[in-house]
Specification:
heterodimer; A: 70 residues; 0% strand; elongated; B: 345 residues; alpha+beta; 8-stranded antiparallel β-barrel; 9 helices
């Protein structure tokens, strides 16, 4: 009996936590992005792309690269 | 009692983990999405003072059109960043053209402190940018080497989806020309576009996805990724229609700085010559007849005469209106009227 009661209690606690967690997270997105938010996100994206694609070069390496292209 | 406690603790632990996982998934669905839609200048370079060649600085630049949104709504933001040495600046009022970029430079206080304007041109096997940079009262000549970018399959696929939304008929035509359609974008709308996106993300080198990418790039040569993709193709096959378009894009920068032609790749010189010879005929009021075969020089319409002094690409004839052999005032309308009358008198 005690085991059953404890089990039921545990299930109820888990269910309560689960439901409260889902209620907080679900629902439609809160409106559209403001232009400032969209801009900031765009800058972050560009910055990330620069980090991924551009290798840092020393002046000597840059000079060699510019000269080698000619 | 201990067993009961252990059971309760285990159930609580499992429940919390499950809630966290679910919350993360649901949260991810509501997260801001951002993707590069169009790439402008991206790379390392150097800025040299116009007045003092010993005054120079290493620069890094990134300019792109980024699509940002929540859920299904997206907006495109043209944004850029400039590193002048260690100093970081935001680029605003960005304008991206076919082989050109310009922007105003803003510091961390959101005050405009300069501007930048660059033109791209091919050098060796890369794309370069050259132009002017004004910053904090100084004027510089700026040079940037365009970075080779590993474009993600998802990003490529999104561009195709957008292209098919804006040009459903051309989208279908491009796929049919490659052999078969993935689905019919005109009949199936968004469902088809989603299918194209998913398919091409998984199989970016499928001939239909490649054909769609080429069709997209024909209209989007302001995207540096498109120019890079075509540059590779044009090295191998100058006959592609897009090669001439790409040549025209680079022609602008090369006309501004003719000395750059010295280091331009061979295919650019060939294309440029084609453009030049066509321009000679057209500037004189003529029309380049299309050569159908290697020995056929095309035909001039009634009311036109062949001008042997003006060349056309591929050896085709330059046809001039008969009334004005110098081509002044001559145009296609005159040719059409004469043809209708059957004579040029």
């Amino acid at each position: 009996m005690k085991m059953a009661a404890a089990f039921l209690l545990a299930v109820l606690i888990v269910a309560a936590v689960f439901i409260s967690g889902c209620v907080q997270q679900t629902g439609p997105p809160e409106g559209e992005l403001t232009s400032e938010e969209a801009e900031n996100q765009a800058y972050l994206t560009v910055e990330q792309e620069m980090e991924d694609a551009i290798e840092s070069m020393t002046l000597e390496e840059l000079e060699n690269e510019l000269l080698n292209q000619g | 009692m201990k067993k009961i406690l252990a059971l309760v603790m285990a159930l609580l632990f499992i429940g919390v983990i499950g809630v966290s996982a679910t919350a993360q998934q649901v949260g991810a669905q509501n997260a801001v999405r951002a993707r590069i839609n169009k790439m402008g200048a991206l790379g390392n370079g150097i800025a040299v003072s116009e007045s003092d060649p010993m005054d120079f600085e290493i620069i890094k630049i990134g300019i792109a059109g980024v699509k940002v949104g929540l859920a299904d709504e997206e907006t495109e933001v043209l944004a850029g960043l400039l590193y002048f040495g260690e100093d970081k600046y935001r680029l605003k009022d960005v304008v991206m053209g076919e082989g050109t970029v310009s922007a105003d430079i803003y510091d961390s206080d959101d005050s405009q402190v300069g501007s930048i304007s660059l033109d791209s041109y091919p050098k060796g096997d890369k794309e370069m940018w050259a132009g002017t940079l004004t910053l904090n009262g100084g004027s510089y000549n700026a040079y940037v080497i365009q970075a080779a970018r590993n474009v993600k399959a998802a990003e490529k696929a999104w561009k195709l989806s957008d292209y098919c939304e804006e040009n459903p008929a051309r989208c279908g035509t491009a796929m049919r020309a490659a052999g078969s359609i993935i689905c019919d974008p005109e009949q199936e709308g968004e469902t088809c576009r989603n299918r194209i996106r998913t398919f091409c993300e998984g199989s970016p080198e499928d001939r239909r996805c490649v054909a769609l990418r080429m069709a997209y790039c024909k209209q989007n040569l302001d995207d540096a990724d498109c120019r890079a993709e075509y540059m590779e193709k044009c090295k191998e096959n100058l006959g592609e229609e897009i090669c001439e378009k790409l040549g025209e894009v680079y022609n602008n920068a090369l006309n501004k700085r003719p000395q750059l032609m010295n280091n331009a790749p061979g295919w650019v010189k060939t294309i440029r010559e084609r453009i030049r010879t066509r321009s000679q005929c057209e500037n004189a009021g003529g029309r380049c007849a299309e050569a159908q075969t290697a020995v056929d020089v095309g035909t001039c319409n009634e009311g036109e005469t062949y001008n042997e002094n003006l060349a056309c690409p591929n050896g085709g004839w330059c046809c001039m209106p008969e009334e004005d052999s110098n081509g002044n005032g001559g145009n296609g309308n005159q040719t059409g009227n004469q043809t209708g009358n059957g004579n040029g008198d």
